[in-house]
Write the structure tokens for this entry.
Amino acid sequence: LIRAAIEVRGVVQGVGFRPFVHALATSHRLGGFVRNRGGVVEVEVEGPNASVDGFVRRLRLDAPPLARVEDVIRTAREPRGEREFRIVESAGAADAPAIVPPDIAACAACVDELFDPRGRRYRYPFTSCTACGPRLTVAIAGPYDRERTTFAAFAMCAECASEYGDAADRRFHAQTIACPACGPQLAAIDARGATAATGDDAIAYAADRLRAGDVVAIKGVGGYHLAIDARSDPAAARLRARKRRDDKPFAVMAPDLATAGALVELHADERVALIAPARPIVLARRRAGAAVAGVVAPGSHLLGVMLPGSPLQHLVAAALPGVPLVMTSGNRSDEPIAFADADARVRLAGIADAFVVHDLPIHDRCDDAVVRAVGGTVRVLRRARGYAPAPIASPDGLARPTLAVGGQKKSVFGLADERRAIASHYLGDLDHLPAYRAFAAAIERYQQMTGVRPERVACDRHRDYASTRWARTRGLEVVEVQHHTAHVLACLAEHGADAAPAIGIAFDGTGYGDDGAIWGGEVLIWDGAVMRRDTHLAYVPMPGGEAAVREPWRMAIAHLAAAGADVDAAGAPGSLARDAVLALIVDRFHTPRTSSMGRLFDAVAAVAGVAPPRATFDGHAAMALESCAAGEAPSGEYPLAFGPRGIDASAIVAAAAADARAGVPAGVIARRFHSTVVALIEAACRRARARTGIDRVALSGGVFANGIVLGESIERLAASGFGVIAHRAVPTNDGGLWLGQLAYAAALDRAGVQECA
Ligand code: ZN
Ligand code: ZN
Ligand code: FE
């Protein structure tokens, strides 16, 4: 007979770990107890030697699906003759670090209960259990117990309390337990602020309004969504006008998998992603004739589709069978999603015709996650609800606690110690004050949650990024990491390959370069310690700077002029505009130099005639170009030229313009350009391999969100004998920079170098 004390570390609170330990100990006929202490789970068991050993083994192997067991530390204790096993009161400081799990969609058992008229949770929208429900967005502090969640305001009724205390119940120690008698309640509010319905009637009210073409704001798990009937053109147009979102595609919630499958083509991997517990938005190819209004996702061959995740979404979907709903974040333009009730009512007042609200506070906002399957692999493009915060292994050799603040527009930061790295949820565009405040507040929260006190901070080299400015005023050692170095290292580190040499292809829209130019078409060589720029797209002027990002035809003029071709092929809105831009180039006035691949997409989209006159979101013209190419079979490439000044991209634009002049359809031009980019990547890698012998390639940067470029690059490079690494769990766009910044700090540690800025 022995007694053992066991400490379990990792994501072990809020995942049903104590009930699991209770069941496991009982089945092994062990006495003792389990409790949360600070952020860890503490267990003491007593019984025969073999049973204790078996118990400890199973602790790791059979852990609940949402748990992440990192460490199991066992120490011997003196037996006390304890025969019974109990869950006891949590101990430890209320501000002890504890990693909260992600918010998880209602599990199958909870959905069954939701629609079971005999059960006491029939149609109750706050049904959850130890295996599902909100976590990150309701947890206030650690250890994860009800009194430190926003459920604290709801005292359990006798029936809930008995389920909570029953070791055989699915809700044994489920902190988000609630029922119609004791839990949060729904209400519907009309545009004038009057209560229109309460409880289940609020769902019927919302369904009626949605059927009538109204915009309904629905308080979700991580913030407010704006919903409309996705089939209605006038409703979609109204939502766009009110939200001031001109063209950026809206995501659609399909009521069930069958309806989703009628909207988009779903391969096996996409189906799996749709029904995964994270319930992300899945970008998939839209079917011809899909029952969705044209203005929902104008000019895109893709449609973002998700399935109901929360019980409330299940109820709304069930009230509108077969009806796809636009489900977009509750905000104006690109501001952060509204999540606090008073703020939401003000900010969404001119947008929503009605609100569905409830009295469970959201502690922290969290957007929907976005994924896309390319090459048979599901890739996360926005790491948010359902994914964050889940720890990953720290980059190899990271010797000190480090905070990496990421980029600017798709803000995500990462916090790491020697062993593990945790990325924040997606925080949005730091150009907006509320997002910047959320960024600063979330850094505090994550430090508390992880217990990691950073000794240095890694950031982008761009001094105008809000994240960089924040980083430089902390009084900590600062490590500045070049943008594209961070992209490539993020990709390598995600695969645990950042300590080995690789060729890095970093293609994106904009990143601050070491020479002050705007980089974005970079071929880099990483030797395991130092990043070297091998080659890049040859510099061209970027007339008007930021204005050239908004107006794609400006980049077409820049490239055509550089190639000595007729600039009228750029499609400028008139000769005055054309001449003004040419004058900027000649005078080098407000005209930085750029090697950006994203801007090359803009230029080709403009000469092909598919660019918007004004890009209203990140990657707008590139998305149009990809959609245009998506329906075409490959039919040739444009010429490639590698020279001392870099890769001549202007010749590509000139060739595309010549095609356009000859009457070649836009789809064929777009397709040829995509083939050209893939050929360029392969050629650049072959040249780098010939010189260095390195045959591993990392593909990173926002351009690799493009399905054709990524999918065909992987194929072509693999066929040429390269080992190809692309992003999966960490976004290829600037939402992945934090990991590359951490990997760079780790490389400094491995080399024993300090870098002070
Ligand atoms: Zn459940
Ligand atoms: Zn209850
Ligand atoms: Fe970038």
The CA atoms of residues 405 and 413 lie 4 Å apart.
